[in-house]
Design brief:
Elements (H helix, E strand, L loop, with lengths): L4 E6 L2 E6 L10 H16 L5 E6 L4 E3 L14 H18 L4 E5 L2 E3 L1 H7 L3 E5 L3 E3 L13 H9 L1 H10 L3 E2 H7 L4 E3 L4 H13 L3 H14 L4 H15 L3 H12 L9
Parallel strand pairs: 2-3, 3-5, 4-6, 5-7, 6-8, 7-10
Antiparallel strand pairs: 1-2, 8-9
């Protein structure tokens, strides 16, 4: 069904594996279209409770824009962003389900932005992120100017953007760019641990948290207080909320089913 990525679902997990190894999974117009489509598909699948995004092999997560592939039908860089990259990033950020990034190698340029759009990043120690845009006379895009200062602060964001230097797993974890950095041999186990948690978590509550936290970045306190009340009304009627309260009272582990 997809030519540039691998997609499989199993036991509540949708695994999306970028698969253009000859160019380190660089983002061509077709791959961007496929990522957007598969994220939307997974979001609409009620059996999917968590998404995993990674790259095939052990060298690259995503090397950024495929400059040799061109911009497809877009007539300018700005149009390519508006019609392709931006919808892809928004699909991930607006998805009411957790998205976990298994950072298995380099994540450069828009590939770095793609990783930062995920909710949780587990990185190999030898994987790195780089804002390489400055090396070709461009500025960060695909959301990096939004994500970076919120994750690391304005001064560090400027340094990373203006130098494009590599930030390897351990430093990335220290800065807050990724949640955890582990030896490459332990990457699968560490990722599986995170996936197992979200696969058994109250999916609708997690989705509401994600969307509310997104909104809080450009909202005031009163707006967020009202949103919390509205969302709690909805969540209070879900099966998982009832199960969670009952499990708490009975002093047992809740059996969440994502509904």
């Amino acid at each position: 069904m997809y030519d540039n990525l691998l997609y499989e679902t199993n036991d509540g997990v949708a695994r999306i594996t970028l698969h253009r190894p000859q160019v380190y999974h660089a983002l061509s117009p077709d791959l961007i279209r496929e990522i957007t489509d598969v994220v939307t598909t997974a979001g609409a699948d009620p059996t999917v409770r968590v998404l995993l995004l990674t790259g095939s092999g052990d060298k690259a997560f995503c090397s950024g824009a495929d400059l040799k592939a061109g911009m497809g039908e877009a007539t300018s860089l700005g149009e390519a962003l508006r019609t392709r990259y931006n919808p892809m990033i928004l699909a991930i950020r607006n998805l009411p389900k957790p998205v976990v990034c298994r950072l298995n190698g380099l994540a450069a340029g828009a590939g770095c932005s793609l990783a930062l759009a995920c909710d949780v990043i587990i990185a190999a120690d030898d994987a790195y992120l780089s804002q390489i845009f400055v090396g070709i006379g461009l500025m960060p895009d695909a959301g990096s100017t939004f994500f970076l200062p919120r994750l690391v602060g304005s001064a560090k964001a400027f340094e990373l953007a203006s130098t494009g230097r590599r930030v390897y797993g351990p430093e990335a974890a220290q800065l807050g760019l990724v949640q955890r950095s582990v030896p490459t041999a332990e990457l699968d186990a560490a990722t599986a641990e995170v996936i197992a948690y979200y696969r058994s978590a109250p999916t609708r509550a997690i989705g509401a948290m994600k969307q509310a936290l997104n909104a809080s970045l450009h909202s005031d306190l009163e707006t967020m207080l009202n949103r919390e009340a509205e969302e709690q009304d909805k969540l209070g009627e879900t099966r998982d909320a009832g199960e969670g309260i009952m499990a708490f009272l009975q002093k047992r582990t809740p059996d969440y089913q994502g509904r």
